[in-house]
Amino acid sequence: xxxxxxxxxxxxxxxxxxxxxxxxxxxxxxxxxxxxxxxxxxxxxxxxxxxxxxxxxxxxxxxxxxxxxxxxxxxxxxxxxxxxxxxxxxxxxxxxxxxxxxxxxxxxxxxxxxxxxxxxxxxxxxxxxxxxxxxxxx
Length: 138
Hints:
Strand content: under 5%
Oligomer: single chain
């Protein structure tokens, strides 16, 4: 299901956190290697029917992107070959709203790596180059 390798974290963890991190796909940093908190893979949030319905459907993401660009009053300028990147960003925003509600400008959360890879697998970059978590925009 995931394109990333699954393995132990290089950080120090204990108890249930260590158990759940064993299921989290590898990410470039320990901060990004967040588990959804489910102890068994069949209960992983990335496998819920809601993930498919709210986060991975292109029609839902097109509508969400249109609403976002209208609210932000920014042009929806999609360059050739960037549709998957736009779908990924829209899916990340949809996931945050689904799980945390709207956070407001400047507030960010780390999305569980299982969900990040589910989104990346659905909307891959042709070169395998992905932007990682950025705590704040510069």
